[in-house]
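I am hoping you can look over what I have pasted underneath with an eye to the fold:
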Amino acid sequence: MKARNLIILIISILIIDQASKFYIKLHFYAGEEHNIVGSWFRLHFIENEGMAWGWKFGGEFGKIALTLFRLVAVIWGSFLLKDFIVKKYHKGFIICAGLIYAGALGNLIDSMFYGLIFDSSIPFTTQVATFLPEKGGYAGFLHGKVVDMLYFPLIDTTYPTWFPFVGGKPFSFFDPVFNVADASISVGVMLLLIFQNKFFKKEEEITPTTIEDNTTSQNA
């Protein structure tokens, strides 16, 4: 796979990811939700300080540690992608690695810069954030929150009353609110797991016995 094509893929994902986050940040207040397709596809604006899919990790210290880990991973990943291309790894494998890299970079941008370039989004009000506010952003470098907005509650119902322990309580699937970067990481990982045998298939080794058998057959 050519490096140019991989770069185009990564930049395209970043543009879509950041454009969607900017739009939501500048037009939605925190907690605002709108149905897009029926009730199963919604835009629901939340911000999180943790990992992909809204998972959290160790409070304020965990936030810094996670952001620094993302930064190191992205820098290391840049060299890995170059190595994969030079060594001519399977095209599908390189694409998956590119998807994971683009997703990690997309969320890293939020964590590094969003606290500097936006002011706070106040939950459940009509006030939305502004870009490059005069009084400065809501947090310092590395303290930005990741913007999530994609919500697919495919099933929204309640447990049957006869169901043990949770009978009559609400049940929904799929609950996590995520973003394009999260989706890119998840798709890359899932494709790696599904097609790993194809991506890492080894060519049959030609052993001395095989060579000897072939020579014997030709002489006969």
User: Anything to note?
Assistant: Confidence is low (pLDDT under 50) at residues 203-207. The radius of gyration is 23 Å. DSSP finds six helices and six strands in the chain.
